[in-house]
């Protein structure tokens, strides 16, 4: 089990942010590419090795992100069209999401309905954050990437709503 924390609204004005563990130590950092069409994010571990690349697909009706590990496509996070709920598909994995994504209160389950990650909003001395508890140690990087992609969709939607 791995417990990680991401500061709320990390995509607002930064192109780099850190993912921390329960001791507030940096365990990953994420860098966004500037001046690109769509979001392009790279996730690095403590040894400065790229563990994941996240790229927004362009020209889609609803947001869609591809995740790559070592140049191999590992998953696609796709927002579904619904009126009352924020639903996402996780293609390439037999996983699905339950709960309120916009409130950062949701779980990711495998095809047997077993919880493999639990995401919830937390308040700590270092700022509003959300906590990610990952129960599948073999999929930490991919699950972290899925949460980052979903947060990116939420941040873009909030930015779009505030500009109108």
UniProtKB/TrEMBL annotation:
SUPFAM superfamilies given in the database record: Tubby C-terminal domain-like (SSF54518)
Pfam families found in the cross-reference section: LOR
Domain of life: Bacteria
Family to which the UniProt record says this protein belongs: Belongs to the LOR family.
Protein name: LURP-one-related/scramblase family protein
Protein's organism: Alkalibacterium iburiense
């Amino acid at each position: 089990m791995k417990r990680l924390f991401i500061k709320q609204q990390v995509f607002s004005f930064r192109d780099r942010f850190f993912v921390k563990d329960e001791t507030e130590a940096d365990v990953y950092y994420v860098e966004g590419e500037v001046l690109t069409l769509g979001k392009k994010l790279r996730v690095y571990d403590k040894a400065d090795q790229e563990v994941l690349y996240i790229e927004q697909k362009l020209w889609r009706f609803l947001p869609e992100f591809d995740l790559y590990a070592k140049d191999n496509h590992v998953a696609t996070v796709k927002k579904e069209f619904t009126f009352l709920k924020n639903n996402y598909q996780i293609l390439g994995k037999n996983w699905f999401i339950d709960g309120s994504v916009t409130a950062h209160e949701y779980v990711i389950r495998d095809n047997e309905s077993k919880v493999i990650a639990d995401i919830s909003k937390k308040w700590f001395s270092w700022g509003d954050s959300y906590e990610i508890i990952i129960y599948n140690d073999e999929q930490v990087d991919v699950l972290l990437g899925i949460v980052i992609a979903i947060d990116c969709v939420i941040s873009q939607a909030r930015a779009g709503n505030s500009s109108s």
